[in-house]
């Protein structure tokens, strides 16, 4: 249940939100049809989950499944179709009311129980054999829903049980975002079009575009300047909530050719066990676009590179101090002979400045 809204911007007022307020705002955001429409319509997302569940039918048939953050209940229905004896579909937002109708419409109310509430507060009548969840947010960890999956794993999953997906990996690569350049250069073209000099807007535009926000945009393959570098891997069977407080790693990339690095691109994959050849859901710019798109981190100053210029550094992802559901990304990086630079990026929802 990963909410995507197009582009995030840093809120101007920063105050730490009470956790109940954070959670209420988060769950309320899933009460609108648009988010669920976008997720179900994402064919890569929905069909990969469907294939992963059906291909694991031997581990699901006759077993008990827990769907964490069930949303409209589509994954629960996939599990019932794969032969699950019982599916507990836990959903905290009011979309749970629609999930009840969908389950009934598909004549599966005898096998799927919709439980309205937060995973941490509900009770189940039995342990489960399988946990399924679509918990991934922007840059993988935005919204911190993985914490609930790990809570469910530790409290409800039988020893030797199955988790779908079972692994997540994070990647980074340098890029040249030509769209950002075009937007900055636009103000210098206004005079030739309309006879009004607006070139003084360029500095203002730069502050709005090249800031500390994590921008969520689709990145084209042509903009990526090197092979991907994996900087973190999460094993959902063993990772702990404490470890999610700082997901860090190093990266090293060699540029393809002459260009300009003006941003980093971050994306993720999740993997489902499937015999010898696991099934991978990828949000890479080299793959079919998903509703997660990619996370773009703009550098304060662009840097020219040539063939084999090395781009390396360390990256740390951690929850925001203002709201634990918001992700921050800190990057220490060097490009060629440039001395090490540092920048911290935020991806807040933009609602904390509206709270009393």
TrEMBL record:
<dbReference type="GO" id="GO:0070611">
    <property type="term" value="F:histone H3R2 methyltransferase activity"/>
</dbReference>
<feature type="domain" description="Protein arginine N-methyltransferase">
    <location>
        <begin position="167"/>
        <end position="335"/>
    </location>
</feature>
<dbReference type="InterPro" id="IPR029063">
    <property type="entry name" value="SAM-dependent_MTases_sf"/>
</dbReference>
<dbReference type="GO" id="GO:0005634">
    <property type="term" value="C:nucleus"/>
</dbReference>
<keyword id="KW-0489">Methyltransferase</keyword>
<keyword id="KW-0805">Transcription regulation</keyword>
<keyword id="KW-0234">DNA repair</keyword>
<keyword id="KW-0808">Transferase</keyword>
<keyword id="KW-0539">Nucleus</keyword>
<dbReference type="GO" id="GO:0032259">
    <property type="term" value="P:methylation"/>
</dbReference>
<dbReference type="Pfam" id="PF22528">
    <property type="entry name" value="PRMT_C"/>
</dbReference>
<keyword id="KW-0488">Methylation</keyword>
<protein>
    <recommendedName>
        <fullName>Protein arginine N-methyltransferase 6</fullName>
        <ecNumber>2.1.1.319</ecNumber>
    </recommendedName>
</protein>
<keyword id="KW-0227">DNA damage</keyword>
<dbReference type="GO" id="GO:0006281">
    <property type="term" value="P:DNA repair"/>
</dbReference>
<keyword id="KW-0156">Chromatin regulator</keyword>
<dbReference type="Pfam" id="PF06325">
    <property type="entry name" value="PrmA"/>
</dbReference>
<dbReference type="InterPro" id="IPR025799">
    <property type="entry name" value="Arg_MeTrfase"/>
</dbReference>
<dbReference type="GO" id="GO:0045892">
    <property type="term" value="P:negative regulation of DNA-templated transcription"/>
</dbReference>
<keyword id="KW-0949">S-adenosyl-L-methionine</keyword>
<dbReference type="InterPro" id="IPR055135">
    <property type="entry name" value="PRMT_dom"/>
</dbReference>
<dbReference type="GO" id="GO:0035242">
    <property type="term" value="F:protein-arginine omega-N asymmetric methyltransferase activity"/>
</dbReference>
<keyword id="KW-0804">Transcription</keyword>
<keyword id="KW-0678">Repressor</keyword>
